[in-house]
Design goal:
Keywords: Cell cycle, Cell division, Cell inner membrane, Cell membrane, Membrane, Transmembrane, Transmembrane helix. This protein has helices at residues 11-35, 37-70, 87-98, 111-120, 125-129, 151-162, 175-216, 218-226, 231-274, 285-317, and strands at residues 77-81, 103-109, 139-144, 167-172. With 318 residues, the chain is an alpha+beta fold. It folds into two domains: 23-70 and 178-311, no CATH class; 76-173, Alpha-Beta Plaits, CATH 3.30.70.3040. It has a four-stranded antiparallel sheet with strand order 2-3-1-4. It starts with 10 loop residues before the first helix and ends with a helix.
Length: 318
């Protein structure tokens, strides 16, 4: 009696079967999550907060760096001209300096204007009227461009300005710039460290959540092992569960960051108005949003992989 050979599946059919099982595992994992609304909401909220904290610090630091780049209310360099330099020469020098690409703006404060501003301060009217001549020199306020605002570049610009024959001396206050940049660098480093610590926390949260789900489905897993299910087959639904936790947590984090930026916008606008300008907080943007969501999914996958791997190793040991 001849045996009838069952035709083997074609590679395309195997691929369709594999994709169908992945889709079914993803849907089933999501259905289980929505079937436990309270535990799922709590887990997603904790993941979202853990991801939102470093993301918010990153957004705040980035906005602060952008804001400081726009602060041009005070001249970075005040170039005092020699007393014998007349108004025409000072105007010509200001025009030459305006043509330099490293300077965003050059303002000329002529001797008469400086004297008038000094009189407005009050208390010196009598002393100034007793003088036969205006003792104040003309001043050029040099505002560097955003690409030439580091302390090193400002010092180089100061030396170039002092080399001008019309220059007498210059005054530059870069200490606040150096302090601010040091604070921003510290904030960026703290953001990275906090992100790493909270990322580890997300791994532990997802791993523990998946471990509890494995315990709840121990009987189902044992049956799959008895019928010869592969480790990949057993691991797949739990990996999707971890990915769903990470995805929902990432979306929750982006929502929290957006709400924080919206809440702070009013206070930031009032602060900018005090300096005679306006500033609108920037959020995560498309790139930042994708980074947070992808990070959440990756952490969810890694955490669930570790949890399922430990269970499979324990099952093999027994």
């Amino acid at each position: 009696m001849s045996r009838v050979r069952r035709p083997s599946a074609r590679p395309s059919e195997l691929l369709l079967i594999w994709l169908a099982h992945h889709l079914r595992s993803a849907r089933e994992s999501l259905r289980r999550l929505f079937g436990m609304p309270l535990p799922t909401t709590m887990t997603v909220a904790v993941i979202g907060i853990s991801l939102a904290l470093p993301a918010t610090l990153y957004v705040g630091t980035d906005n602060l760096r952008t804001m400081t780049g726009r602060w041009d209310q005070t001249a970075a360099i005040s170039l005092f001209l020699r007393h014998e330099v007349d108004s025409d020469t000072a105007r010509a020098l200001a025009e030459r300096l305006r043509a330099r690409p490293e300077l965003a703006r050059v303002e000329l404060i002529e001797r008469e204007q400086a004297l008038a501003e000094f009189k407005e301060l009050g208390g010196f009217e009598g002393a100034l009227e007793a003088l036969d001549d205006n003792p104040l020199p003309a001043v050029l306020a040099l505002y560097p461009g955003p690409d030439h605002a580091t302390p090193e570049q400002l010092r180089a610009l100061e030396q170039q300005a002092l080399a001008l024959p019309e220059a007498d001396f210059a005054r530059m206050d870069t200490l606040w710039i150096e302090r601010l940049q040091a604070i921003l660098a510290l904030a960026e480093t703290a953001t990275l460290l906090l992100g790493a610590l909270l990322g580890l926390g997300v791994l532990l949260i997802v791993g523990n959540t998946i471990r509890l789900e494995i315990l709840n489905r121990r009987g189902e897993i044992e049956i799959m092992e008895l019928v010869g299910a592969t480790a990949a087959f057993i691991r797949r639904p739990f990996l999707y569960a971890g990915a769903w936790y990470g995805l929902l947590g990432g979306l929750c984090a982006t929502l929290l960051v957006t709400l924080s930026a919206t809440t702070l916008q009013g206070s930031v606008s009032r602060l900018a108005a005090l300096y005679g300008g306006e500033f609108r907080l920037a959020g995560l943007g498309l790139g930042g949003t994708l980074a947070v969501v992808v990070t959440g999914v990756a952490l969810g996958l890694v955490g669930s992989w570790i949890a399922v791997g430990r269970h499979l190793q324990g099952a093999e040991a027994h």
